[in-house]
Write a structure and sequence with these properties.
With 328 residues, this protein is an all-alpha fold. The protein has helices spanning 3-6, 11-25, 31-41, 48-59, 70-93, 105-109, 111-130, 135-157, 166-192, 196-223, 226-229, 235-238, 244-252, 256-264, 268-280, 283-302, 310-323, and strands at residues 98-99, 102-103. Helix 4 packs antiparallel against helix 5 (70-93) and helix 5 (70-93) runs parallel beside helix 8 (135-157).
């Protein structure tokens, strides 16, 4: 099933998100800013996070108007702006030249512009959240944003740490990626006036969805081709970041010393091909997929507390959708 089909119950609302994003990024009167923002708008991603906000709001048992309607769309748009800001900064940190098969902001306009643009997008996001006048939603998203930035910082500090444990990796992933997914679901549930137990269930869904998403992303960074990935593969390895696929390879390889030598090599451009081949041909590849499916299953289990609806079904199907990205 394609995303368009999964998003069909919220097609109208996602259209509203695109309109708000466009309006927010076209407010400036500065031609240079507008040019950069137009470029951002021309490269939309999958809109997973705003979709989760809206689906969670509508899947929440006892869906009410609350902060729904325009408020809900603003929350969904704000979370997408936060995600966009994080990507702009991530690309600077990782020296990435491509994103969605297009040049990254820093490779097109320079690092100074990219850093300033990321800050600008964060400010736009919280400006939108403020208009909803809901402190619970503000607290939820603010905390997730702080944890996301902290996770990125920890990941950079842990580069080239060959003693990194799987548990430590999961902690970083929860902070850096999963918490924003969790906040997407939780803020949608808060906006709809869902019961506390439903808010918790949707937050758990988002958290486990996010962990699975990052594991899969890390796996694809190792095995996918550039045209499929939309960016240059091997970025994590080349920056010295030990992701779960590499940790599993270290645990399951019969020639651990050779893998360690690859990880220590100063010429990571050349050794990446060898590492990729070693991973694909080892039990670590299967193990990494099993790890991702474990969190997908946990995410779907959380939905049991929700009343059955097409929105709950879309959430379940969305979890399956991300899992299919690494099926061979």
């Amino acid at each position: 099933m394609h995303l368009k089909e999964i998003y069909s119950p919220i097609h109208k609302e996602l259209g509203g998100v695109n309109k708000i994003l466009e309006a927010s990024l076209k407010e400036s009167r500065n031609k240079s800013v507008l040019k950069i923002n137009d470029f951002l708008l021309s490269c939309p991603g999958k809109r997973l996070r705003p979709a989760l906000v809206i689906l969670s709001a509508k899947a929440g048992s006892g869906y009410k108007q609350g902060v729904a309607g325009d408020g809900l769309i603003k929350i969904a748009s704000a979370i997408e702006l936060i995600h966009m800001a994080s990507l702009v900064h991530d690309d600077v940190i990782d020296h990435s030249k491509l994103r969605h098969n297009q040049p990254t902001i820093h490779s097109k306009w320079g690092e100074d512009v990219a850093i300033a643009l990321g800050d600008y997008l964060y400010s736009k996001a919280f400006e939108l959240i403020a208009t909803c006048k809901n402190t619970d939603i503000l607290s939820c998203i603010s905390q997730a944003t702080r944890l996301m930035c902290e996770g990125e910082l920890i990941q950079v500090c842990e580069r080239d740490n060959l003693q990194l444990l799987k548990e430590r990796y999961i902690i970083i992933v929860k902070k850096k990626t999963a918490n924003l997914f969790a906040a997407s679901c939780q803020s949608g549930a808060i906006a709809s006036g869902a019961r506390e137990s439903v808010r918790g269930a949707l937050r758990e869904y988002g958290l486990n969805f996010g962990i699975a998403f990052q594991i899969i992303d890390d796996c694809l960074d190792l095995i996918a081709q550039e045209e499929d990935l939309g960016k240059t593969p091997g970025a994590d390895f080349k920056m010295g970041e030990l992701t779960l696929p590499v940790l599993n390879l270290l645990s399951h390889s019969k020639d651990k010393d050779r893998i360690l030598s690859l990880l220590k090599s100063p010429d990571r451009e050349k050794t990446f091909v060898d590492l990729r081949q070693s991973f694909v041909n080892s039990p670590a590849c299967v193990k990494t997929k099993e790890d991702a499916y474990f969190y997908i299953h946990k995410a779907k289990e959380s939905l049991a507390k929700l009343t059955d609806s097409c929105f709950r079904q879309s959430l379940a199907t969305l979890a399956d959708y991300i899992g299919r990205r690494i099926r061979i």
